[in-house]
Write a structure and sequence with these properties.
receptor; CarboxyPept-like_regulatory; 22-stranded antiparallel barrel; membrane; mainly beta; transmembrane; 2 domains; single chain; TonB-dependent receptor
């Protein structure tokens, strides 16, 4: 944003000792009509000092003589940066006038350089406050599923991860305060994300390559959950939430508190959630979705020591979750499969600002995570997943040099992943990476130029990898990936000898070690071409090393009802005189290479706001699960030789060149001070360059949202139309269109020092039958039917 210059004088001169004493500096924040703005936040950049304006729009800050930059933030207004020079023996106040904005402008923490969502060349969405609470679901993906450009790989309400512009899994990084969540959610959609939205302050979504800050795993985007588990002030404040949902009888209780004294700040939060099987609209007899119940609990403790120029803090989190995995059956018998998840996470954060000639700020982040996930069938542990990870990032930002802002980032990450059991579809592996990144930005008049580069070294190792014997059964009828979980076995002579090559492969154990050097480059421009408008252009070249599961998988994946084989192995099904079989691939294991262009047009001043995004992403050697015409045994020993074999559809990871392109638009009209209307839509196409579509691509959608914000009453109505998705891959079926109608109403009141809100929210009010095209279990787990949730939330 354009900076305004004002000179503010201090009330006392420097003491004879030359020590600078802080004195109160007063100011007032108003809108363009001269009306005071209460609740505006005034922050001194480069320090931890901030204050909030009172009902008259006035504020007071204690600062020492010198030059500063004040950052002013107020809801429904454009942010403003003010250059301030404090001189002795002067008493001039600060007067700031803010422009209204229909687009909600929010400062983001996902970048080490301070900016808001409209100052970034890369599109960014932030969900927070009442909007976050009203859209909050038990899973992260479902919580974000209404955000523009974001979908969910809905897995029966018990697990889901976000899909950003058609990309998910290891391409979308989920972080907590900027560090990887450290779970197994990128290994399979049935693995829950180990984060809790009810105790989260806000969620930032970066749509597009964010590899500069987060590594090659963020080639598709980043979802960053921000909380105050490592507190940055001793201000006493807290939140509480109690809710009940009628559809699955879910009960939720959560709360958090921050406080402190002197230089010590403390934080505590906790939650408990329990739900039964959810109810879906009836179709072909579907009613209650079996094995979709869940129970989870967790807490976090944190503390920080505050310095004049920064802070250092530590937190500990414990998460315990047990949930059903829907859709697993043997024949006509539904088999209860449970996931038992436990995670312990330690996090260290620090930030220090300096007046050094060269160094301006040093930020450090360290996280150690111990994750355990067991899958139990009929009470017996079948497979256990463990992920022990360590991550550290240090950002060193330099003082402004010829108006350039930026610095270096040093990043280290190590993950030790093991899967043990009858259905361990991927072998134990270790993945480590170390990287150096550089970022810079500078204003040239009305143009902001953003540059960045990153060099990373990633290594994947695994020992005693074994290619198991696998009997393939050819499927003659096309089917959706989970339309049929049970396939009749073909008659095979088990005494028939496999070909010589297969016999040699089956008995061979081998070690795997792959080293990659992903390089990422980006350039972005934000041009304020006229007052209240800007145009953003982002160009990115990114590389991504394949994940261990994409390379090494070979076995039944119980949660998705599929048999997965990694890209390290090749399927031979066209050799005359030989049965179909696997061997080690003769192809080179290569990195994904992404070239991305993103264009954004934004109007952000006034009562009418507009954001239009268009993107084109070309990815060479894109790894994805390709459906085959074969099925394979599910790995169970059924005892009776005459019993029909239970099989799973076979999927093989393959690398193909693809293109993804799409369009996103959002229009916001602040009709009156109380009433607003938002309409938004997005569409994406994801195609193989050789011809054909990528599987599980999100459908186009158009949504309309009406909001009312009164003194005591607030309400919202959300209508979303999902179009038919018939751009399908081979062996994939289409999904019909559907309309979802959601609504909420809130009553706000105060008891003592606590602000409270009683609320009622309804989802799928028309009880629409809806299949989520991006879900592996779309035919087995439709979206929940009509639900009504009521609760009370408070803050102080």
């Amino acid at each position: 944003m354009k900076k305004l210059s004002k000179v503010v004088s201090a009330l006392l001169a420097l003491a004879a000792s030359s020590q600078a004493y802080a004195e109160p500096v007063a100011g007032i924040i108003t809108n363009k009509d001269g009306t005071a703005i209460p609740g505006a936040v005034v922050k001194v950049m480069g320090t931890s000092a901030f204050t909030v304006t009172n009902e008259e729009g006035k504020f007071v800050l204690d600062v020492s003589p010198g030059s500063y930059e004040l950052h002013v933030v107020a809801k429904r207004y454009v942010h403003e940066n003010i250059e301030v020079t404090i001189e002795p023996n002067s008493n001039e106040n600060v007067f700031v006038s803010l422009d209204k904005s229909a687009i909600e402008i929010i400062d983001i923490t996902a970048s080490p350089l301070h900016s808001s969502n409209i100052e970034s060349a890369l599109p960014i969405t932030v969900l927070h406050g009442e909007s976050l609470r009203m859209r909050q679901e038990s899973t992260l993906g479902d919580t974000l599923s209404k955000e523009i450009g974001v979908h969910s790989n809905f897995h029966g309400s018990v697990a889901s991860t976000p899909i950003i512009r058609g990309l998910d899994g290891p391409r979308v990084l989920v972080t907590q305060n900027g560090l990887d969540a450290g779970d197994a959610s990128r290994v399979g959609p049935d693995h829950a994300v180990s984060t809790e939205t009810s105790t989260t302050e806000r969620i930032e979504v970066l749509r597009g390559p964010a590899t500069l800050f987060y590594g090659s795993g963020a080639i598709g985007g980043v979802v960053n959950l921000v909380d105050e588990r490592v507190p940055r002030s001793t201000e006493t404040k807290g939140e509480s939430l109690t809710e009940y949902n009628s559809n699955n009888e879910q009960g939720l209780v959560s709360g958090s508190i921050n406080s402190g004294t002197g230089n010590v700040a403390v934080h505590a939060d906790g939650f408990y959630r329990e739900s039964e099987n959810y109810q879906a609209p009836k179709k072909d007899g579907v009613d209650e979705i079996a094995n979709s119940a869940a129970e989870s609990t967790g807490f976090t403790l944190g503390s920080s020591y505050l310095f004049d120029n920064g802070f250092v803090g530590f937190s500990y989190q414990m998460l315990d979750q047990e949930y059903g995995i829907p859709g697993h059956s043997h024949g006509d018998e539904e088999v209860a499969v449970l996931a038992d998840l436990e995670q312990n996470r330690w996090q260290l954060l620090s930030e220090f600002n300096f007046e050094n000639e060269f160094i301006k700020t040093v930020n450090s982040k360290v996280a150690y995570t111990d994750y355990n996930h067991s899958e139990l069938e009929v009470g017996v542990v079948g497979t256990t997943f463990d992920n022990e990870s360590l991550e550290a990032r240090i950002e060193v930002l330099h003082q402004d040099y010829s108006d350039w802002r930026g610095g270096l980032s040093f990043h280290f990450k190590e993950s030790d992943f093991t899967a043990v059991g009858a259905e361990a579809f991927t072998p134990p592996s270790e993945t480590s990476s170390i990287a150096l990144a550089w970022i810079e930005e500078r204003h040239f008049g009305d143009v902001l130029l953003q540059l960045g580069a990153r060099v990373e070294r990633t290594e994947i190792t695994a020992s005693k990898v074994r290619l198991p014997e696998l009997e393939l059964i050819e499927s003659h009828d096309e089917h959706d990936e989970h339309e049929e979980h049970e396939e009749d076995s073909h008659d095979h002579d088990h005494d028939h000898a496999h070909d010589d090559h297969a016999e040699q492969t089956i008995t061979r154990n081998f070690d795997v070690k792959h080293t990659f050097t992903p390089i990422s480059l980006s350039a972005g421009v934000v041009w304020d071409f006229t007052d209240g408008y800007n145009l953003g252009l982002s160009l990115a070249h990114s590389k991504r090393a394949p994940s261990a599961s994409e390379l090494l998988s070979f076995g039944p994946h119980i949660g998705t009802g599929s048999y997965e084989v990694g890209a390290l192995f090749s399927l031979h099904d066209d050799e005359e005189g030989h049965e179909p079989h696997f061997s080690l691939t003769e192809h080179d294991i290569v990195m994904e290479t992404s070239n991305n262009i993103d264009i954004s047009l934004r109007k952000f001043k006034g009562d009418f706001g507009l954001i239009i995004n268009a993107f084109y992403n070309q990815i060479d050697d894109y790894y994805y699960e390709q459906a085959t015409h074969f099925s394979a045994g599910d790995g169970h020993d059924h005892g009776d030789e005459e019993e029909e074999a239970h099989t799973l559809p076979l999927y093989v990871f393959t690398a193909q060149d693809v293109t993804l392109h799409g369009f996103e638009a959002q229009v916001v009209w602040q009709v009156t001070n109380e009433f607003s209307w938002r309409i938004q839509g997005d569409v994406i196409r994801a195609r193989l360059k050789s011809g054909g579509e990528l599987p599980r691509t999100p459908p186009a959608r158009l949504t309309s949202e009406f909001n009312y914000q009164g003194e005591r009453i607030s309400a919202g109505l959300f209508v979303s139309n999902y179009f038919k998705q018939d751009h399908t891959a081979e062996l994939e079926t289409s999904t019909d269109s559907y309309v979802m109608v959601d609504a909420n109403i809130n009553y706000h009141f105060t008891v003592g020092q606590q602000d409270l809100a009683l609320y009622l929210k309804g989802k799928n009010l028309t009880n629409e039958y809806a299949q989520v095209h991006t879900s592996f279990l779309k035919d087995l787990t439709p979206l929940a039917g009509r639900s009504v949730a009521f609760g009370i939330r408070g803050s102080f």
